[in-house]
Amino acid sequence: MFWRLVLVALGGALGAVARYTVSFLFGRAWPAFPWGTLVVNVVGSFLLGLLMGATASGRFLLDPAWRSFLGIGILGAFTTFSTLSYETVEAVRGGSPMHALGMVLANLVLGLLFCWIGLFLGER
């Protein structure tokens, strides 16, 4: 149990750094919309679906501790639905409810779609 916690913590550190880097780069390139949040949520949803599909189907054998490192640690820290929530509330408070609705719908629909695609590809 201890080593699994260590792996999750290390994965979390890596995922958080990756999330910050992606958000920073996209934020500099397109500051009018939180594209970084959308990208990490869609990519993270796809990768988690791929990981879970590949390991649950038996197509890819992975020790449960390493699955926790990747799924809970790296991808758990990489995706940012708490950030999405904050950015949505701030858009509403800033007088842009349609912008907020667009952010929520894009993240939810694309996140679910890419998770499904990842599961589909991981199981094959």
UniProtKB/TrEMBL annotation:
<protein>
    <recommendedName>
        <fullName>Fluoride-specific ion channel FluC</fullName>
    </recommendedName>
</protein>
<keyword id="KW-0812">Transmembrane</keyword>
<dbReference type="GO" id="GO:0005886">
    <property type="term" value="C:plasma membrane"/>
</dbReference>
<keyword id="KW-1133">Transmembrane helix</keyword>
<keyword id="KW-0479">Metal-binding</keyword>
<comment type="function">
    <text>Fluoride-specific ion channel. Important for reducing fluoride concentration in the cell, thus reducing its toxicity.</text>
</comment>
<keyword id="KW-0407">Ion channel</keyword>
<dbReference type="GO" id="GO:0140114">
    <property type="term" value="P:cellular detoxification of fluoride"/>
</dbReference>
<feature type="binding site">
    <location>
        <position position="79"/>
    </location>
    <ligand>
        <name>Na(+)</name>
    </ligand>
</feature>
<keyword id="KW-0406">Ion transport</keyword>
<keyword id="KW-1003">Cell membrane</keyword>
<feature type="binding site">
    <location>
        <position position="76"/>
    </location>
    <ligand>
        <name>Na(+)</name>
    </ligand>
</feature>
<comment type="similarity">
    <text>Belongs to the fluoride channel Fluc/FEX (TC 1.A.43) family.</text>
</comment>
<dbReference type="GO" id="GO:0062054">
    <property type="term" value="F:fluoride channel activity"/>
</dbReference>
<feature type="transmembrane region" description="Helical">
    <location>
        <begin position="98"/>
        <end position="121"/>
    </location>
</feature>
<dbReference type="GO" id="GO:0046872">
    <property type="term" value="F:metal ion binding"/>
</dbReference>
<feature type="transmembrane region" description="Helical">
    <location>
        <begin position="35"/>
        <end position="56"/>
    </location>
</feature>
<dbReference type="InterPro" id="IPR003691">
    <property type="entry name" value="FluC"/>
</dbReference>
<keyword id="KW-0472">Membrane</keyword>
<feature type="transmembrane region" description="Helical">
    <location>
        <begin position="68"/>
        <end position="86"/>
    </location>
</feature>
<keyword id="KW-0915">Sodium</keyword>
<dbReference type="Pfam" id="PF02537">
    <property type="entry name" value="CRCB"/>
</dbReference>
<keyword id="KW-0813">Transport</keyword>
<keyword id="KW-0997">Cell inner membrane</keyword>
